[in-house]
Amino acid sequence: MDKKILSDIKKALEKLDDALKQEDSEYIRDSAIKRFELCFDLGWKLMKLYAKTEGLECNSPRSCIRTMFELGILRYDENWMQMITDRNELVHIYRQELADIVYHRLPEYLQMLKAVLDKITKTPTYKDGP
């Protein structure tokens, strides 16, 4: 397993957590959303690497999340699909109203991404190395 991506995602999740602990303001919201986007991108890339160690291939966030369902790393939860939609809309069509809505979902998304990292790092594949 690529230790660099693991280190990067841990740091990114910590920074998102720190941002969410700050007093709410437009600046903090925008910062937290950008940090979420980074966490999301690192998260699905971690899933892609993990799938590869299991002999599977996934090449998009949606396919990697579905692969994690199949591998038992994640339990099916519609919030994963909502997370993908939110991330894509934020990146491609930034609207303040959407940003406000997604900002309030970030604590849940943070916990979901932390859970993936935790689950992957507890697998034999992670412990034994690729």
From TrEMBL:
Q: Which Pfam families match?
A: NTase_sub_bind
Record InterPro entries: HepT
Q: Does the keyword field hold Cytoplasm?
A: no
Q: Residues of the signal sequence?
A: none
Organism of provenance: Candidatus Roizmanbacteria bacterium CG22_combo_CG10-13_8_21_14_all_38_20
Any one Gene Ontology MF annotation carried by this entry is: transferase activity
Keyword list (alphabetical) reads: Transferase
Name this polypeptide is given: Nucleotidyltransferase
DNA-binding listed as a keyword: no
The organism's taxonomy opens as: Bacteria, Candidatus Roizmaniibacteriota
